[in-house]
């Protein structure tokens, strides 16, 4: 159109000033007007064909709503759109990827440790489950030890490490499993997505994202001029950002829940849906009622029954529920078994679940347990801007599990598995086997894979260093089983790293173990039924133990939670100081500036002034 106008004026400047010129220009302008009219008609016709199929309204939410496919439903929300301009500027596009980069894998479960860091920032004592090994690993890239090119879907590699415990000095043996793939950014393409978003609209979502709902109003003091967003606002904006990554052929549905579950939008192709209108409806949503997570999940699973089995074929389609909540159930299904069973049963039907935790008081205990199922993962959100950036980088990876039921069988008379770090299924490990339910595609940076290792700690049980036989088996998404075998051998008991990938993984696992032991002991002091220990755990004698093996933790778990103030005893401050020296030395060797984030945490905990506190340090 622009070219036509340029040509008209060019021709006008170069033609004689005659009646012919006037006639020609008249003809061109008429043609231009006709073209504009035709184009406008096409656009209007396309927009008319798009359906605003939103069904939920505050005024009629108590009734189960069912509208025929294709009927427009006008929103009767009592609140006017707060973010209408943002929604209207939304574009249905996906950020381009570099075709040259290779891909690796990362495990399912936690994909960050943001809830832990946000609680520290706000002056709260984080919950134990807010910090996981796999969540922190996903913040880093690792040299996986891959020596040969991978020409298959999954190619594990192995690296060895021998180092002294940072407290006891006892020799520890480690084996890292590198999660490599023959996929590249160019060859990877997610399938058509059937997406159902399930959103918590219960009363607890009304609280500011940086305070605890059960603390009551006014406990968290805001700085002058600060206007914190509610968890509901963050959740609504997160969903709208997610919609930006859907393609016209994808299908989208939305379910809401408080003390009941409601279908807000049926499952329909994005290309046939008025997504601007849907985004406005989402941004209008307000919190109310109790929290029945089971009702919401059940209603979300039901939405897939509206499409035929051919449209759920895992070879052609991705089927996923994205469940946004602060995970504080107070009604309906509270047992882990109930929600866990629903997610597990859905996974058997190739409907997988992602949980997105909203707010500083997001309770990760339940979600951490649920996301050990096949195809599941979870994220914590405290800023829509940060999560939008993450979606731009990895939305397609987030919804595309590719490797299932991975098992590593270890055969040795001299070593046994005593710990697994970097996998949500760590408690499924035995002395000879480790299991990982799901692997998701993961990006690479300078040949290092983001979150691309699982760390295995070994105990030496024999007196020789015979080779360790390793056999890996796994299923691809079609159900076909693959396997391969390898051997590794520890040549000595002296300090050694095969590469910096395993060295970094061990350092981060030690860091997480120390912090999780501190959280167990500190949260005891914030609990009425379990007393805080005195003195702190004797690391100098027994070394840095696996916190998941401590029997105290199950005693202090709670569902509806009030906050605990950040607290560091003098004994733990001394332990953190000792570990900081070790961390500094390793960080210098690794030359990874991103480790400074963990150093800053150690410094804050060491400097934490709690007033006059009991010195629970004891060396003898």
Give an account of the 3D structure.
The chain has 620 residues and is α+β, with helices and mostly antiparallel strands. The chain folds into three domains: 46 residues; 246 residues, Rossmann fold (3-Layer(aba) Sandwich), CATH 3.40.50; 147 residues, Immunoglobulins (Immunoglobulin-like), CATH 2.60.40.10. The chain is built from 15 helices and 20 strands. Strands 1, 4, 5, 12, 13, 14, 17, 18, 19 and 20 form a ten-stranded antiparallel sheet that branches. Helix 1 runs antiparallel to helix 2, helix 12 runs antiparallel to helix 14 and helix 14 runs antiparallel to helix 15. The protein is globular, with a radius of gyration of 28 Å. The relative contact order is 0.14. The N terminus is likely disordered.
Sequence-ordered SSE layout with sheet pairings:
Blueprint: H1 2-13, H2 19-49, H3 84-88, E1 102-107, E2 109-110, H4 114-121, H5 133-137, E3 141-142, E4 155-164, E5 171-184, E6 192-200, H6 231-243, E7 251-257, E8 261-269, H7 275-284, H8 293-302, E9 317-325, H9 336-348, E10 352-358, H10 364-370, E11 377-381, H11 384-398, E12 403-411, E13 415-421, E14 433-442, E15 444-445, E16 448-450, E17 453-460, E18 468-476, E19 481-488, E20 496-497, H12 500-524, H13 539-542, H14 570-590, H15 596-607
Parallel strand pairs: 2-11, 6-7, 6-9, 9-10, 10-11
Antiparallel strand pairs: 1-5, 1-14, 3-16, 4-5, 4-20, 5-17, 7-8, 12-14, 12-18, 13-17, 15-16, 18-19
Helix pairs in contact: 1-2, 6-7, 6-11, 8-9, 12-14, 14-15
């Amino acid at each position: 159109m622009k070219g036509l106008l340029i040509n008209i004026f060019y021709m006008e400047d170069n033609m004689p000033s005659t009646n012919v010129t006037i006639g020609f220009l008249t003809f061109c302008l008429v043609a231009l007007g006709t073209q504009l009219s035709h184009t406008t008609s096409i656009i209007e016709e396309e927009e008319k064909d798009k359906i605003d199929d939103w069904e939920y309204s505050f005024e009629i939410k108590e009734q189960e709503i069912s509208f025929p496919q294709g009927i427009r439903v006008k929103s009767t929300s009592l609140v006017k759109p707060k973010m209408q301009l943002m929604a209207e500027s939304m574009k249905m596009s996906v950020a381009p990827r570099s075709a040259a980069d290779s891909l690796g894998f990362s495990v399912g479960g936690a994909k960050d440790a943001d809830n832990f860091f946000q609680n520290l920032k706000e002056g709260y004592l984080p919950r134990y489950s807010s910090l996981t090994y796999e969540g922190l690993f996903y913040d880093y890239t690792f040299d996986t030890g891959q020596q040969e090119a991978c020409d298959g879907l999954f190619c594990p590699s192995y690296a060895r490490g021998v180092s002294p415990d940072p407290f006891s000095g006892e020799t520890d043996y480690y084996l890292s499993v590198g999660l490599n793939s023959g996929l590249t950014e160019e060859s990877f393409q997610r399938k058509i997505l059937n997406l159902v978003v399930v959103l918590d609209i219960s009363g607890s979502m009304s609280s500011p994202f940086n305070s605890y709902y059960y603390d009551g109003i006014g406990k968290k003091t805001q700085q002058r001029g600060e206007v914190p967003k509610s968890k509901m606002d963050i959740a609504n904006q997160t969903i709208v950002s997610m919609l930006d990554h859907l393609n016209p052929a994808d299908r989208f549905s939305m379910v809401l829940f408080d003390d009941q579950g409601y279908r807000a939008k049926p499952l329909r192709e994005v290309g046939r849906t008025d997504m601007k209108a849907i985004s406005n409806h989402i941004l209008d949503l307000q919190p109310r009622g109790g929290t029945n997570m089971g009702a919401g999940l059940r209603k979300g699973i039901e939405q897939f029954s509206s499409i035929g089995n051919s449209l759920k074929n895992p070879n052609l389609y991705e089927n996923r529920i994205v469940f946004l909540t602060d995970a504080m159930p107070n009604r309906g299904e509270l047992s882990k078994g109930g929600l866990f069973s629903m997610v597990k049963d859905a996974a058997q039907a190739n409907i997988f679940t992602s949980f997105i935790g909203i707010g500083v008081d997001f309770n990760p205990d339940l979600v951490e347990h649920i996301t050990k199922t096949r195809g599941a993962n979870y994220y914590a959100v405290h800023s829509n801007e940060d999560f939008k950036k993450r979606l731009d980088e990895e939305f397609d990876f987030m919804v595309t599990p590719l490797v299932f039921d991975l098992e590593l069988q270890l055969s040795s008379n001299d070593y046994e598995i005593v710990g697994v770090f970097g996998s949500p299924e760590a408690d499924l490990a035995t002395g000879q086997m480790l299991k990982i339910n799901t692997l998701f595609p993961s990006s690479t940076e300078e040949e290092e894979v983001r979150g691309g290792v699982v760390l295995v700690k070994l105990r030496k049980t024999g007196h020789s260093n015979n080779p360790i036989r390793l056999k890996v088996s796994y299923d691809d998404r079609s159900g076909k089983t693959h396997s391969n075998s390898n051997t590794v051998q520890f040549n000595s008991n002296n300090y050694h790293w095969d590469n910096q990938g395993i060295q970094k993984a061990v350092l981060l696992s030690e860091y997480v173990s120390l912090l999780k032991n501190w959280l167990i002991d500190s949260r005891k002091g914030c609990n009425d039924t379990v007393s805080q220990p005195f003195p702190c755990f004797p690391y100098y004698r027994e070394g840095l133990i696996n916190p998941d093996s401590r029997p105290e933790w199950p005693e202090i778990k709670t569902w509806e939670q009030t906050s605990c103030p950040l607290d560091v005893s003098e004994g733990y401050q001394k332990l953190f100081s000792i570990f900081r020296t070790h961390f500094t030395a390793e960080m210098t060797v690794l030359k990874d500036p991103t480790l400074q984030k963990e150093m800053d945490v150690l410094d804050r905990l060491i400097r934490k002034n709690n007033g006059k506190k009991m010195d629970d340090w004891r060396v003898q």
